[in-house]
Task: inverse folding
């Protein structure tokens, strides 16, 4: 479980990787959340929005790690182009349904995420993806 999760916009993988030590808040447009398993969340969101099984997405290398610390510290990973497209193209009712399904999946694993909070997280990340697309940039996640 991650302590700090920050989704952020960066022009490329190299720029995103530079945030590993300090985090992206000062350098890039970003939004932070508390304790969620961000790697698992983006795979679940992609599965819910675009299809495929959790196992297939993980076997395909999602999420793609950009930078990490050897001792299990911070990591930076990229939001897949497929998930970015699905988030950006989804209408609010679809995002709301995905958030509710995600909250239910987490509850089945013993992790409680309020549906309203799940909706706020998924909606905020979708808005960030939209902002990134307008600038032809990518969305990444820094986890500490």
Result:
């Amino acid at each position: 479980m991650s302590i700090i999760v920050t989704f952020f916009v960066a022009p490329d993988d190299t720029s995103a990787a530079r945030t590993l030590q300090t985090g992206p808040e000062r350098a890039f447009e970003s939004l932070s959340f508390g304790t969620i398993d961000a790697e698992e969340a983006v795979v679940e969101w992609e599965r819910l929005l675009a299809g495929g099984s959790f196992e297939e997405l993980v076997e395909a290398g999602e999420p793609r790690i950009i930078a990490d610390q050897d001792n299990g510290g911070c990591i930076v990973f990229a939001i897949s182009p497929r998930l970015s497209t699905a988030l950006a193209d989804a209408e609010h009712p679809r995002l709301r349904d995905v958030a509710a399904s995600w909250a239910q999946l987490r509850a089945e694993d013993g992790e409680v995420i309020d549906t309203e909070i799940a909706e706020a997280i998924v909606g905020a990340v979708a808005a960030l993806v939209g902002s990134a697309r307008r600038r032809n940039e990518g969305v990444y996640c820094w986890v500490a």
Notes: Strands lie at 5-10, 30-33, 64-68, 75-78, 138-143. The chain has one domain: 5-143.
